[in-house]
Amino acid sequence: MLTPSAAQERAAALIDLARKAGADAADAIYSGSSSEGVQVRLGKLEDIERSESEHLDLRVFIGSRSASIGSSDLSDAALAELAARAVDMARAAPEDQYSGLAPEELLFRDRPAALDLEDSAEPSPQDLLARALAAEDAARAVAGVTNSEGGSASLARRVMALVTSHGFAGAYGGTSHGISAVVIAGEGDGMQRDYGWRTARHLADLPAPEEIGQLAGDRAVARLKPGRLKSGPLPVVFDPRVGGSLIGHLTGAMSGNAIARRASFLLDRDGAQLFRPGITIVDDPLRPRGLSSRPFDGEGLPVARRELVTDGRLTGWLMDSAAARQLGGSPTGHAVRGAGGSPGVGTSNLHLAAGGLTPEELMADIADGVYVTELIGHGVNGVTGDYSRGASGFRIVNGQIAGPVAEFTVAGNLIDMFAALTPANDLEWYRGINVPTIRVDGMTIAGD
To answer: Which residues contact 183 (CB under 8 A, 6 or more apart)?
Structure first.
């Protein structure tokens, strides 16, 4: 895997080759990663894995025609062939009036922010093994745990570089340390499975592996002997580990590409009062050590902290350059790049701001409700906002968490759900989307 500076140089060389081959404009993006992980099960080493990969993708423009192509062979000869082939493909491609590089006058020109995304710590395989064993041992020590699917510990390093033919060049790297445990409680048909995990940019930000294992064991045991719910309307409280998916549905519908296709349940709701007053949702790509932080977006544009929802009101769409051209706006710095092709639209470090009530206070007046800890399936219609997902969790009886429940469905419409959403004050920062405990009144439960 190349260093950030070497990756930027290689991408710049590919741009030069594309221009020489006849491209009017081009951009190239390098992505490289290396990872090392250890997996244990029942106290014994099960697997040690190390992988490394790198890829260089090229997008070229001939007028309003474009083509994309990529290669994992970064030799000079391979890149020269790649550039020539991309130009030939673009000449045969259909015209697209909205395609093109980001506006040159908007490109990021400043010194990148110090985001502290790289950790110099280099744990040995023995260090990873010790953490994985400690996590699994702690989980298996919980009374009621009967089996294990394993513990793991890992380190990953990633490098990204972007160069455009109209003046942008940038690169950055990052690390991520991870630890997890997955265990089973109970016997026979009554077995239940659950997990604990954590990922952080820096090793020092990870909790002790014993804490992760204890959490996995406690969660699995708490799920034993689940009951069933009767169908009907109930207040639903979403645990933070699943509540972030609601915010993900929101930002997906805020994509300018979805709006331009008229394929979003937020169509014609720009600026609408979607949530209760006081609700704030923030996207912050410049958060130090953030799991999704980045100094620039996938088109070389500057990024900045932005409130997507302010006092319950939507603040506008998330747009890359193509969506901005379609909608007659300006790109918002939310372009993201995958393994190839044109940019898409995506967010970075999202969070729903904490409310003023503790989770206990949030549930205190619920005589009969459900606390959801797991969501199953993908029953969300991005065009209509209709929401229906399988779930499991716990009953809420007279404001208190009661016994476990499973095999039910929570349903509603996202517009109604957002309007009825109330956050607690227990926001924590260790996921890509961070939310506190969330209460949504008026949902429908499909059970017995």
So the answer is: 136, 139, 140, 142, 145, 147, 148, 149, 193, 194, 195, 216, 217, 220
